[in-house]
C-alpha cells in the first residue's frame, strides 16, 4: 500500500519554496519510505505544490513527515492532503 502526500503552495510563495528547497530535498532523501517525489508546475512553469509517494502502511509516518517538512514549517502550503493509494498499473 502506498500513501500520497499532496501539497498545494500558497499563492505568491515561490520565494518561500526556493529558500527552503535544499532542506526539503534533504528531508526527502533521509526518509527510506519515499519512493517518488516532485513538484507540481503551474501554467507559468513555476513550482506550485508537491506530490510525494510513500511505500508504507503507516499513515502516522506520513503525517509526521509532513509536519516536519521544512516547507511546512516555513508556512509554504495552503493545503495538505494524505491519501491512501492502491497502485494498479506500474511497478
Describe the structure.
- It is built from three helices and four strands, in the order E-H-E-E-H-H-E.
- The protein has 91 residues and is of the alpha+beta class.
- The protein has a four-stranded antiparallel beta sheet with strand order 2-3-1-4, with helices on one face.
- The radius of gyration is 13 Å and the shape is globular.
- The two termini are 12 Å apart.
- The model has no long low-confidence stretch (mean pLDDT 96).
How would a crystallographer describe the biggest sheet? Answer: 4 strands, antiparallel
Fraction in beta strands: 35-45%
Uncertain ranges? none
Task: Average the pLDDT over all residues and give the rounded result.
Answer: 96
> Can you tell me the CATH architecture?
2-Layer Sandwich
- The number of helical segments is 3
Q: What is the number of independent domains? A: 1
What is the general shape?
Answer: globular
Tally of strands: 4
What descriptors fit this protein?
single chain, alpha+beta, Alpha-Beta Plaits, four-stranded antiparallel beta sheet, 3 helices
Entry summary:
This protein is of the alpha+beta class and 91 residues long. Helix content is 33%, strand content 37%. The protein is built from three helices and four strands.
Describe how the helices and strands are arranged:
Elements: E1 2-9, H1 14-29, E2 34-41, E3 47-55, H2 59-68, H3 70-73, E4 77-85
Antiparallel strand pairs: 1-3, 1-4, 2-3
Amino acid at each position: 500500500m502506498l500513501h500520497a502526500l499532496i501539497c498545494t503552495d500558497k499563492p505568491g510563495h515561490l520565494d518561500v519554496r526556493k529558500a527552503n528547497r535544499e532542506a526539503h530535498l534533504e528531508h526527502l532523501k533521509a526518509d527510506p519510505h519515499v519512493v517518488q517525489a516532485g513538484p507540481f508546475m503551474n501554467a507559468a512553469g513555476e513550482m506550485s505544490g508537491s506530490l510525494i509517494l510513500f511505500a508504507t502502511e503507516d499513515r502516522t509516518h506520513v503525517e509526521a513527515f509532513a509536519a516536519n517538512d521544512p516547507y511546512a514549517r516555513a508556512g509554504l502550503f495552503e493545503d495538505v492532503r494524505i491519501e491512501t493509494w492502491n497502485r494498479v498499473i506500474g511497478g
